[in-house]
């Protein structure tokens, strides 16, 4: 998603103050940059995938991640064969190398979640960690209602259904506003959910099934086949759903917005990543924060069923406790006096007093 360069200007006693925000696609803006989540811009880290055959080989050149990040956890464009000018790899590399030229880097994460990596980034340029940003907005504007922040219309009918379900008994399944599934992917997912025996709320967005697979017909058939323990919607107000007491797990594509919303709500995750930053975020969820399971590189109903049972039965207490601790840390960060709250105030003050040319990124595990 591109949002170009946004400028905010304020007239003050000392003249104009200005902050610039930019999108990752602006590689021609040589004085602006955006963080891609791997401190130091080590080009060799990703390039190794061009010649390496074993995706489980650990990545050893990135500070604070060398004990858990594997080649398969790096962004999916690293698995391609195109590394020249104009390639996604080269675009991201150029942006990373420009990051130290920024006067500051704004990231949608918080100290309690990614403190060690934030410290690594600070050796290259100042960092303002102000996340989870969606929740901080609500802290500063207490009247702001929960919303999906999306152009899809919410189906509010799922909320009364959730009200009738036992506490932490429902797995919520949604894959964001852009992802498309093939028929095979959807059917393997569906059978895994059915075989788990768990209550579920499944979002199947209009147009989210590859057109060649007759998506509308498939959805109609699934709606007809949905048992009383399940509910299908075309879209849901995700923040409100995740905050509901009936939700016990979240099966997600591991996009950063979804990850951040799940963190603030304290809901354990099953991560089924598809592209870009989703790969490494799913690894952080499973191996670093230990608030869920990583289901990358698979499309198997047996695995789906096993993951759901593992999260909601066998290790339920373990994951619930860990997710609650992360939620506590996140909410503390955005509360008045918390690290993200203070950083936000410091950022505003810096732009007022001297103007700060900044880069904006999501979590350092990147979105």
Automatic annotation (TrEMBL):
Organism: Rhododendron simsii (Sims's rhododendron)
Keyword Glycosyltransferase: yes
Protein's UniProt name: UDP-glycosyltransferases domain-containing protein
GO biological process, one term: glycoside biosynthetic process
Glycosyltransferase among keywords: yes
Gene3D superfamilies in alphabetical order: Glycogen Phosphorylase B (3.40.50.2000)
MF-aspect GO terms: quercetin 3-O-glucosyltransferase activity; quercetin 7-O-glucosyltransferase activity
A family per Pfam: UDPGT
InterPro entries: UDP_glucos_trans
Keywords from the UniProt entry: Flavonoid biosynthesis, Glycosyltransferase, Transferase
PANTHER family to which the protein is assigned, alphabetical: GLUCOSYL/GLUCURONOSYL TRANSFERASES, GLYCOSYLTRANSFERASE
Protein family: Belongs to the UDP-glycosyltransferase family.
């Amino acid at each position: 998603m591109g949002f170009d360069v946004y400028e905010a200007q304020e007239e003050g006693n000392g003249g104009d103050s200005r902050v610039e925000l930019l999108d990752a696609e602006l590689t021609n803006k040589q004085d602006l940059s955006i963080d891609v989540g791997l401190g130091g811009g080590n080009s060799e880290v990703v390039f190794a995938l061009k010649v390496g055959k074993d995706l489980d080989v650990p990545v050893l050149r990135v500070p604070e991640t060398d004990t858990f990040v594997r080649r398969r956890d790096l962004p999916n464009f690293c698995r391609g064969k195109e590394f020249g000018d104009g390639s996604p790899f080269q675009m991201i590399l150029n942006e990373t190398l420009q990051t130290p030229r920024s006067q500051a880097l704004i990231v949608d994460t918080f100290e309690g979640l990614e403190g060690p990596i934030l410290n690594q980034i600070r050796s290259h340029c100042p960092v303002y960690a102000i996340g989870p940003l969606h929740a901080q907005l609500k802290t500063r504007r207490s009247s702001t209602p929960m919303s999906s922040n999306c152009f899809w219309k919410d189906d509010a009918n799922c909320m009364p259904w959730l009200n009738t379900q036992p506490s932490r008994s429902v797995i919520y399944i949604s894959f964001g506003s852009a992802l498309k599934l093939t028929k095979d992917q959807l059917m393997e997912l569906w059978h895994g959910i059915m075989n788990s025996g768990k209550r579920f709320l499944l979002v199947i967005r209009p147009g989210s099934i590859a057109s060649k697979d007759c998506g509308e017909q498939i959805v109609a058939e699934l709606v007809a086949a949905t048992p009383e323990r399940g509910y299908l919607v075309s879209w849901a107000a995700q923040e409100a759903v995740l905050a509901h007491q009936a939700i016990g797990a979240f099966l997600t594509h591991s996009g950063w917005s979804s990850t951040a919303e799940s963190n603030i709500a304290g809901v354990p995750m099953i991560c089924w990543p598809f592209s870009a930053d989703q790969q490494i975020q799913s690894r952080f969820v499973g191996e670093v924060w230990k608030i869920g399971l990583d289901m990358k590189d698979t499309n198997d109903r047996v695995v789906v069923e096993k993951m759901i049972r593992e999260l909601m039965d066998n290790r339920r207490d373990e994951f619930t406790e860990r997710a609650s601790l992360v939620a506590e840390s996140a909410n503390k960060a955005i509360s008045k006096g918390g690290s993200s709250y203070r950083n936000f105030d410091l950022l505003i003050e810096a732009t007022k007093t001297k103007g700060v040319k900044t880069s904006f990124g999501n979590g350092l595990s990147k979105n």
